[in-house]
């Protein structure tokens, strides 16, 4: 009965993780079958999501539930902006647009940030722990496929300069999850929100897949 919350959230979202990981857009992207425009479009979508996640940071910094997770070394917005400048040029801001699924995802993150810190933690976990894990596989592929400088412009999003030991960092992050001040019911709601977060990601992949069908 005493499964830790970090184990619970990981196990409960396992199926959704497999779905996101094996979506056709991701498979084609990682298979080196898509052009750099597809990677750029995906990076744009990430920017809208991290904009929603990270614009909430000042407001949540002192929150007893979400506050402890807001480690400055995780922040990705500045890195995404450098990548987008590299991928789009200096006018990137006027060039980027959110897909409908991305807008829904960002809106959900913003809504949690506004009035449900536990829900925000679910989104925080889904993105940042994923970026620290599978994100490294995506970086490696992107460097090889489109010729970005190793850990340089174009893939900075995946490079956590200030996290020397990602495995240790993830361990500490899981300890924070295990220490979350929430009762069992709230924890269950957070797990459900995590599943929703994965589904929101999968929906973005679906729309990206429609925009970049392999047979085109
Ligand atoms: C092709 C894409 C992906 C690959 C190859 C991938 C791969 C991985 C790998 C290897 C891990 C490490 C598991 C461990 O440390 O034991 C991981 C963890 C994780 N991934 Fe992914 N992943 C992908 C997509 C995603 C997506 C789209 C999300 C959600 C937005 C995501 C969220 C997570 C999370 C939250 C974890 C941490 C699980 C935990 O230890 O609690 N991943 N992923």
Key attributes of the depicted protein:
216 residues; mainly alpha; Heme Oxygenase, Chain A; 12 helices; 69% helix; binds protoporphyrin IX containing FE
Describe the structure.
With 216 residues, this protein is mainly α. The protein has a single domain (23-211), classed as Heme oxygenase-like (Heme Oxygenase, Chain A), CATH 1.20.910. It is built from twelve helices and no strands. α4 (36-55) packs parallel to α8 and α8 packs across α9. The relative contact order is 0.19. The model has no long low-confidence stretch (mean pLDDT 96). Residues 10, 17, 20-21, 26, 30, 125-127, 129-130, 133-134, 137, 198, 201 line the site of protoporphyrin IX containing FE. Protoporphyrin IX containing FE (HEM) binds at residues 10, 17, 20-21, 26, 30, 125-127, 129-130, 133-134, 137, 198, 201.
Number of domains: 1
Number of strands: 0
Helix count, DSSP H or I runs of 4 or more residues: 12
- The proportion of residues forming helix, as a percent range, comes to 55-70%
Radius of gyration: 17 Å
CATH class, named: Mainly Alpha
What is the overall shape?
Answer: globular
Q: Report the structural category.
A: mainly alpha
- Which architecture per CATH? Up-down Bundle
Q: For this structure, what is the CATH homologous superfamily?
A: Heme oxygenase-like
Element order: H for helix, E for strand: HHHHHHHHHHHH
Ranges with pLDDT <50 over ≥5 residues?
none
Distinct bound molecules: protoporphyrin IX containing FE
How far apart are the first and last residues' alpha carbons, in Å? 51 Å
**What characterizes the major β-sheet?**
none
Average of the residue pLDDT scores: 96
Strand content: under 5%
Q: Which fold does the CATH topology refer to?
A: Heme Oxygenase, Chain A
Organism: Streptomyces physcomitrii
InterPro entries: Haem_Oase, Haem_Oase-like, Haem_Oase-like_multi-hlx
Keywords: Heme, Iron, Metal-binding
Pfam families: Heme_oxygenase
């Amino acid at each position: 009965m005493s499964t830790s919350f970090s184990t619970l959230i990981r196990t409960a979202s396992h199926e959704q993780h497999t779905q996101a990981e094996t979506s056709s857009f991701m498979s084609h992207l990682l298979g080196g079958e898509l052009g750099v425009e597809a990677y750029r479009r995906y990076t744009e979508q990430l920017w809208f999501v991290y904009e929603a996640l990270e614009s909430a940071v000042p407001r949540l910094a002192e929150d007893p539930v979400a506050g402890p997770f807001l480690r400055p070394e995780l922040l990705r917005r500045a890195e995404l902006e450098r990548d987008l400048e590299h991928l789009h040029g200096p006018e990137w801001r006027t060039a980027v647009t959110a897909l409908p699924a991305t807008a829904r995802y960002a809106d959900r993150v913003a809504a949690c940030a506004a009035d449900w810190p536990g829900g925000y933690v679910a989104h925080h976990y889904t993105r940042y722990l994923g970026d620290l894990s599978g994100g490294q596989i995506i970086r490696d592929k992107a460097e090889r496929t489109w010729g970005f400088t190793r850990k340089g412009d174009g893939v900075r999003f995946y490079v956590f300069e200030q996290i020397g030991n990602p495995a240790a960092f993830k361990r500490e992050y899981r300890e924070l999850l295990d220490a979350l001040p929430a009762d069992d019911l709230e924890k269950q709601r957070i797990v459900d929100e995590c599943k929703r977060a994965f589904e929101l990601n999968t929906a973005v992949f679906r729309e990206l897949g429609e925009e970049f069908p392999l047979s085109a």
